[in-house]
Amino acid sequence: MKRYSQTTGEVGESSDLSPWKTADALDLVYVGYGLLIVVLVLVSYVLGAFTWLPYDPEQIRVDLLNAPPGSAGHLLGTDFLGRDILSRLIVGIQAYFLPGLLAIVISLLLGTTLGALAGYRSGEVETLVTYFNNLVDSFPRLVLILLVIAAFKPGIYYIMVVVGVTGVPAVASLIAGKIEFLGQKNFIEAAHVLGLPSRVILLKHILWHHCMPLLVIQATIGMGEAILIETSLSYLGFGVQEPTPSWGNMVQAGANYFFQGKFWPSTAPALSILFTILGFHLLGDGLNGILEGSAGK
Amino acid sequence: MIKPRTILEVVDLRKHYRQRAGIFPALQWRERFIPAVDGVSFCLEEHETVGLVGESGCGKTTIGRTILRLIPATSGRIVFDDHDITAMSARELRPLRSQMQMIFQDPDASLNPKMRVRDILKEAITTHHRLSDGEVARRIGELLDQVNLKASKLSNFPRELAGGEKRRVGIARALAVGAHFIVADEPTSALDVSIQAQVVNLLRDLQRQLGLSYLFISHDLEVVQLISRRVAVMYLGKIVEMGLADRIARAARHPYTHLLWSALVEGQSKEASHAPLNTRTGAWEPFDFERPVSGCRFAPRCPVYEARGRPAVCTDAATEPQLHDIGGRHYVACHFPV
Amino acid sequence: MGAPLLEIENLRTYFHSRSKRAFIRAVDGVTMAIARGKTLSVVGESGSGKSVTALSIMGLLDAGPGVISGKITFRTDGGERNLLHDLEHYVTLGEQDGRIMEVSKDEAGWRKQVERIMAEVRGKEIAMIFQNPKSALNPFVTVGHQITEAIRLHTPTKHPREAKERSLYWLERVKMDSPRLRFDNYPYGLSGGMCQRAMIAMALSSEPALLIADEPTTGLDATIQSTIVGLLAELKSELGIATLLISHDIRVVSRLADDVAVMYGGTVVEYGPAPEILGAGFGLKHPYTAALLASRPSVQNVQENGGLPAIDGEVPDPIEVPRGCRFYARCNRVTDGIRDRCERREPELKEVTPGHQVRCWLYLD
After folding, report:
1. Tens digit of pLDDT for each residue in B142-197?
2. Which residue of C has its CA nearest to A19?
3. SS3 call for B70
């Protein structure tokens, strides 16, 4: 049964309600959850940067090895060296937050530039960009990263540069596609006829007005990917090394004790990874539903 | 009497589109191209409206865009306000752009859907002149008056406006930069009949008030005839007949013009209904290039050609009919004008 | 003469706008009838609801809530059917001040019901042709195959070779040139006019009792339009098929229609024989019809100063439906005596001459 109703009955100059008011409830929930996660991450980042932590994340307490949550003031318990898990989780964010931002910035800036070049000036430039895209795309991402690590043994920031570059084709093709689609529309021609310089048309009419939601969504997806890669690498032992905490290496460290019944040291970071990445993706999804949904009408 | 100034002169304008060839045609030395505009010449005087009429594929829209330098011309000359703009750089062209504008066919696509009406007009006003906020507001008010648009529409987005209102925003935008020459690309086509009359009246009033000159492109012969002083009829990239609107309406000499008019008349004329089972239109069909048309392009559909037993002079490339003056600035490109 | 072939009574089709949280009253109480072998033309502009009416008959509406009330009686030799049978069981309406403000509809259930009713009707007894023929045909299938498919689906001819013969027969009937050649063409290889002929062939191949033509000539070049109109006129007289022609083009309507229904803002404002409604002079016409005919950009309507007598204002908004007469805001024939009523109450349809009805307070005294 579907129900429809109308509240006003009089003739008037009704204008469209803002997309936020008419959004699907589910999308709003997604966005709400996603924002919550983002806030938590930001707060944790700040806490970690200033080391305003409940406990010293590197302090070993031999008497409290693998203590369950709630024991002696450790909200989430301790790990195999007696270190407070909560504090380590908070600090673990340092491992991926800034590097992740770097990856996103690279993907978006480079991707937008290449996409704009390809979409706006077709011909040789477009072909070149397409070749570059295909080249980068054809590498499996994780393998490429492992190769880089094996060859150069770089820090996480350099790894994130690679992550950023491998993310460029996706952004570039989205932008290029959008530009091609819009290029058919007369209002771009109208802007030309007005005498607006191409630069302005591209930046204002195309990118700002039409590509912003796209880019925001790509940013959220990018962050989710960055987190996943960083934690995967740390789990495998390639990223952040002990004793510096990363969610990935925390999972790895606790893995040995998992089957001894002490599942907490592994599960806490694993769930954090899950819920955080979920948060970013849902944020992107929800925003997409709200912002693009209204454009469709 | 002072002779009116010619503000636009188009000389032998051509626009060829290269056709994406398949594998085999590419092996041939001759390049395949679609001559969308194939040698068009005319001029337009100040305060005049010249109508450009034809069916889909005749090239009229392409001419409009080429004249405004939205598309580069393949060859020929475009002289606007005594400036040869055919190959001008974008920078040199910029100041001239404020003098020539376009009204687009699709009212939905020609306005940026994410910009409010106020912003659209403001952008147009400030592109070429620096004005204070107060002056901009005053100019916007002036424009709204001229196109008869309510001030309450300023904060609306294009999708919240009705068809006629969107069209009027487009017209206001063209006026905002201060243009005195406007290319109107099918301005009445996407509108309901009752709104078409409004727009036609508006365009006429504006022409009188502001001394505008129009190139009025349309497939609707009746609207063109109402608003234009001179009319050019196009077919497959060429002008086949050109003259005073009255003459084209009442005393057309080219067989194609006759065909267009008869399609409108409320009882189908005999020639059209018994035309040879020729359902080919004026559009460039995919198989055209297998049988290149030489000579007069209208010959395959021309009832006069049939009636006269297919004279060779019509299809011989060397004797392709050219526009010639048959008196009173009435030009026809036909060997056997009706 | 007998009872009409298709009779629509008080049809209401509403949609709902999420962004405005209001109903789009696309068809708001429409009554009309098509007699056997005759052509009824529905004339109107955007927002008049003419296309939605056709889609409502065929059950081709997707958006919700869709058809919410009415009765469509379809009378063939096989009997009489209500194409909106049992609609009341699926829909509950809530009114306020005489206006529908709430709709509850079992959409999934109604969709199934429509499929049950229309499965044997669509394509077989009622066929439809659309605007923009190139996009209405399947671009991945040859034209001939599409017609053959329709024949095998809707007629007793099931054998592929026989069906192909029938297709070619119909392609010839619609005056397609080189039918055998065109049979194997894809829609992109044909011009707009040829695609429209193919679509007409497809529609008529099942020899339906009623043909619904939704803006069949819009989007075609002027010279082609007139040949298609000529074709429809010929087929009409040869086959004796009843037609519901939807169009905004008065020229096309005047050549094909026996009866005309003028729609404005979702309702029928004038209904009657074509010569009376479309003929010259104000006569006993609805002010909208008169103004529409007078405002056409045509050489006959040009006034002394070279302008056209235009109708003020914009086409009606199906969301903001006024209380009184829907045309009141743009009407130039309101007199002081009726102004009050025009503003407050919607007039009923009244017969002004035999067979000719007008919905206007000018005639309701």
Report:
1. 999 999 888 888 888 888 888 888 999 999 999 998 899 999 999 888 788 888 88
2. C19
3. coil
Q: ipTM exceeding 0.85?
A: no
Would A165 be classed as within a structural domain? yes
When scoring B169, B192, B289 by the number of chain C Cβ atoms within 10 A, the one with the most, hence best to mutate, is B192
Question: B194–C223: do the CB atoms touch at under 8 Å?
Answer: no
Q: How many domains does chain A contain in total?
A: 1
Q: What is the mean pLDDT of residues C331-345?
A: 88
Which residues, 6 or more positions from A31, have their beta carbon under 8 angstroms from its beta carbon?
Answer: A282, A283, A286, A287, A290
Does B65 contact A195 at a Cβ distance shorter than 8 Å? no
Global pTM reads 0.82
CB contact under 8 A, C45 and B275: no
Q: Give pLDDT tens digits for A64-88.
A: 777 777 777 777 788 788 788 888 8
CATH code assigned at A46: 1.10.3720.10
Q: Which of C249, C258, C206 is nearest to C228 (CA)?
A: C249
| CATH superfamily of the domain spanning C6-125+249-363 | P-loop containing nucleotide triphosphate hydrolases (3.40.50.300)
Min distance B177 CA to chain C CA atoms (Å): 26
pLDDT of the residue at C295: 86
Contacts of B196 in chain C (CB under 8 A): 295-297
A 106-165 residues with CB < 8 A to C: none
Helix/strand/coil percentages in chain B, nearest 5: 40, 20, 40
Contact B55 C291 (CB under 8 A): no
Q: Is residue A192 part of a domain?
A: yes
For residue B281, give the nearest of C193, C295, C308 by CB distance. Answer: C193
Q: For C20, which of A2, A5, A16 is closest by C-beta distance? A: A16
**C-alpha distances in Å from residue B194, one per residue of A122, A207, C109:** 42, 38, 41
Q: Is residue A291, in this structure, part of any structural domain at all?
A: yes
Domain limits for position A141 = 25-55+72-296
Give chain A's end-to-end CA distance (angstroms, integer): 23
Question: Best mutation site among B65, B104, B112 for testing chain A: the one with the most A CBs within 10 Å?
Answer: B112
| A62 is a domain residue | no
Pairs across A and B, CB distance < 8 A:
65
Residue C180: count of CB within 10 angstroms of its CB = 11
pLDDT, tens digit (0-9, with 9 covering 90-100), for C118-176: 988 998 899 999 988 888 899 999 999 999 999 999 988 889 999 999 999 999 999 88
Sequence-distant contacts of B298-302: CB under 8 A, at least 24 apart: B298/B235, B298/B236, B298/B240, B298/B254, B298/B255, B298/B256, B301/B256, B301/B259, B301/B275, B302/B255, B302/B256
Q: What is the pLDDT of residues A221-235, one digit of tens each?
A: 889 988 988 888 888
Domain spans of chain B, in order of start: 6-99+180-332
Looking at chain A, which residue has its C-alpha nearest residue C102? A5
Q: Do B264 and C315 touch (CB under 8 A)?
A: no
Burial class (CB in 10 A: 0-12, 13-18, 19+), B173: buried
Tell me if B65 and A295 make a contact (CB, 8 A cut-off).
no
B6-99+180-332 classified as CATH 3.40.50.300: yes
